[in-house]
């Protein structure tokens, strides 16, 4: 081959406020992951345990935005990833974490930490190491520009496989009938 093998796409992933189910679906690609790793190189990801984010072609983010740390991580991904993908219901619309949006955060914290049966002399945590919670949980697109949305709770391994294969091939991802589910 002239010029050597094609350059692998650098892909990073992260999980914000959610259940980590989208990363589990990514792992459910099973042996097809080996085929995918022939064409991509993983950067920061719980799958690699790399903590620092380099320049990437694709950033995949699951989970909603519920605290200041989530905002920081999401903005870092947007700044360092050419293409940013919101994956799963929490990233796309806030998902289950956004169920707290109709509650007053202060009252919710009081209820959980001070008045819940079984807690004696409880207090709302205020350690400076803890990220500042936001009043509401936000989908990713309310904080940064998102290039692609992959819905589902979580999206199936087949949907993620098809989506990533299209991206790697330079095509606009298109998920046909049966790959998008909302259950």
Please outline what is shown here.
The protein has 183 residues and is α/β, with parallel strands linked by helices. The chain has a domain at 9-100 and 133-168: Rossmann fold (3-Layer(aba) Sandwich). It has 6 helices and 7 strands, in the order βααβββαβααββα.
Encode the helix/strand succession as letters: EHHEEEHEHHEEH
The CATH homologous superfamily name of the domain at 9-100 and 133-168 equals NADH:ubiquinone oxidoreductase-like, 20kDa subunit
**Roughly how many Å is the radius of gyration?**
18 Å
Mean pLDDT: 90
CATH hierarchy class name of the domain at 9-100 and 133-168 = Alpha Beta
CATH topology of the domain at 9-100 and 133-168: Rossmann fold
Give the strand order of the largest sheet, numbering strands 1, 2, ... along the chain.
Answer: 2-1-3-5-7
Q: Would you mind describing this structure in some detail?
A:
The structure is a single chain. By secondary structure, this protein is an alpha/beta fold. It has a domain at 9-100 and 133-168: NADH:ubiquinone oxidoreductase-like, 20kDa subunit (Rossmann fold, 3-Layer(aba) Sandwich). The chain has 6 helices and 7 strands; from the N terminus they run βααβββαβααββα. The chain has helices at residues 21-27, 32-37, 68-80, 89-93, 105-115, 157-168; strands at 9-15, 40-42, 56-62, 65-67, 81-87, 133-138, 148-150. The strands form 2 sheets. The chain has a 5-stranded parallel beta sheet, sandwiched between helices. A two-stranded antiparallel sheet has the order 4-6. The chain is elongated. The termini are far apart.
